[in-house]
Amino acid sequence: MRLSREFRNQFSQRELRTHGRKNGFVTAGQEARLLKWLPLIGLTRDMTLADAGVPVASPIVMEIGFGNGDFLVHLAETHPDWLLLGVEIYLPGVAKAVGRLEDAGLIERTRITQLPAQYVLQHQVAEGQLDGVCINHPDPWPKARHHKRRLIQKDFAALLVSRLKAGGFIKLASDKPDLAEWMRDILDATPGLTNVAGPGGFVPRDADRPETKFEQRGLKKGRSSQFLHYIRD
Ligand SMILES: C[S@@+](CC[C@H](N)C(=O)[O-])C[C@H]1O[C@@H](n2cnc3c(N)ncnc32)[C@H](O)[C@@H]1O
Which pTM does this prediction carry? Predict the structure, then answer.
């Protein structure tokens, strides 16, 4: 079985240049699950989040770059009242997460897309629609000439703020000190956000957090992660 070009085009935004891998090996079983679930819980590029059957009373929390779904599954398990919007450009990651969410009986409370977070926030999420955003270990792009590829940029931070409700949160993690400081400096300087740890600060690790793949990868190399928590004023 192969996902048709038409099917893939619905869920990915080919015109929009994003850095990072989008394609890779997906098993026939995973493809079958994508074909089953994305038409039901996927956000195609012509839809807004409001079109995606969002229950009126549910807080909506977005995870950007969910990788293989470690944290998304944790959020769904620990917050049964939340509607989760999972955004991940790497198709094999989307496929893994869809399988795990289905197996755990949690998939109907999620909306999933392979579209890039910038597109989703700009075109599909309304102002003030989100109760929270989680970003775990975004790509570090360590070379100085690639820093402009990093997810957290001044304009992106302002876009995030505009999509959050008053009192909504942004939580971030990174095992790369340089990137953690980069994100903190940009978000501390973004109007409308308060750093829960105080300016320049990091919060302690939430005790119930699962170790995501990239947190574990950092730990294996002797790097513990740093955590940021912001509240929208
Ligand atoms: C270093 S991995 C971290 C994965 C996972 N959050 C973890 O902690 O193990 C960064 C993830 O962000 C995804 N990503 C990169 N740019 C993105 C974008 N613009 N929108 C959505 N996801 C993106 C990548 O495909 C990758 O899976």
Answer: 0.96
